[in-house]
Amino acid sequence: MQTIVIANPKGGSGKTTLAINLAGYFARRGLRTGLYDLDRQRSTLRWLARRPHELPTIVGIDAHASDTLEAADGIELAVVDAPAGLRGDRLKEVVRQADRVLVPVHPSPLDMEAADDFLGLLADMKRVRKGRCMPALLGSRVNARALSTQQLDTFFRQFELPVLAMIRETQLYVQMALSGTTLFDLPPHRAARDLADWQPLLDWLERPPALID
User: CobQ/CobB/MinD/ParA nucleotide binding domain spans which residues (predicted)?
Assistant: First the structure.
């Protein structure tokens, strides 16, 4: 089972939006996809309860009381929505089971400060140091014309990590959260602009680890 963890210590960083859309992408590709919710708020599971039955199946797994991301129901691909404030032994255990960790960062000073500390913790972990778990960065809820987005780009340049996407702020994600859908369930003409932003991230996730610099 390949495991992709979405993590950031700050609430409101876009973790759940990223998690549900990635789960929708892999489910549409025909993979048996599990959406692991580690947060007691159960946001991803509530979203999944609203998902129309005719769309590709995503298996929801309530894992907030456990650190073990066990493969269930033949899951081939696990997308893990980690809670805000994930640190210490629980962070280490989750990363120990991850193949990739995606860190979405909202362009605000408080979010960047929190991400800076978190990325330092991540870099010190044995599995990351040995290249068995690959972290990457994303901008979340960005406005391309805003000064804050330029500041986020400058912040990202401090790290020797891939920056895979700058996901714009749009009401489309709010609408999809309410309807249980993802970008990959929408007609192409509705999703085209945002799918272009997501494509570098999807390409990176599809590449075998041995081919990633």
Answer: 4-180
- Contact indicator for 75, 2 with CB cutoff of 8 Å: no
φ/ψ of 198, rounded to 5, equals: -80, -20
Residue 184: Cβ-neighbour burial (10 angstroms; 0-12, 13-18, 19+): buried
- Unique residue bearing structure tokens 């997501």: 198
Distance CA 114, CA 117 (A): 5
- Spell out the CATH class of 2-203: alpha beta
CA atoms within 13 A on the CB side of 4: 27
Token representation of residue 53: 């039955």
pTM for this prediction? 0.91
Provide the pairing of β-strand 77-81 with 33-37.
parallel
User: 36: alpha, beta or left, given left = phi > 0 and alpha = psi -120 to 50?
Assistant: beta
Q: What is the distance between the alpha carbons of residues 40 and 88, in angstroms, rounded to a whole number? A: 18
pLDDT single digits (tens) 6-61: 988 877 888 999 999 999 999 999 999 999 998 878 889 999 999 999 999 999 98
Q: What is the pLDDT of residues 152-181, one digit of tens each?
A: 999 999 998 999 999 999 999 999 999 999
